[in-house]
Amino acid sequence: MSGDEEEPAPSSRIPVIGRLYITRDDLNEEFIRASGPGGQNVNKVSTAVQLRFNLWANQTLPQDVKSRAAKIAGSRLTQYGEIILQADRHRTRERNRDDALARLIDLLKRATEKPKPRKATKPTLGSKRRRLDAKKQRGQVKKLRGRSSGFED
Coiled-coil annotation: which residues (predicted)? Predict the structure, then answer.
């Protein structure tokens, strides 16, 4: 952050992991009608929540975390850089809101984990031998499919 930007109030901070956090300003909630449990209530009350997190506009997460989060989000990431999560497992708004936020935090936590670099390895001697043996055996099978040597009844 540069010196002229204000720190968000601690109450608007949502901790992700360690010192990383997101702010409530980055979130946008919309309540919609849910399918699933709820009986007649499901037709009358909008209990499902659609949580939108603007990933690209966020100022508190490092760029490498944002790019990994975009990869993890997959089809839940819009072309405008918003992660959309829909929660309708529960019958109440509050539980669905908490569920959506918990899923977003989990996604961001997974994005903070740096992938292990792949170390190039050579195939073992045993694996080379097994491969060659399998090739020879396959060649034998194909050879036996050929025409016979002329001794027919």
Answer: none
Q: What total of structural domains would you count in the chain? A: 1
Look at residue 117 and tell me if it is in a domain.
no
Among candidates 52, 87, 69, 71, which has minimal Cα distance to 16? 69
Amino acid at 94: E
Encode pLDDT of 14-68 as tens digits: 777 888 888 787 878 777 777 666 566 666 677 778 888 888 888 888 888 888 8
For residues 27 and 51, is the Cβ–Cβ distance under 8 A?
yes
**Which CATH number fits the domain that encloses residue 77?**
3.30.160.20
Q: What is the CB neighbour count within 10 angstroms for residue 113?
A: 10
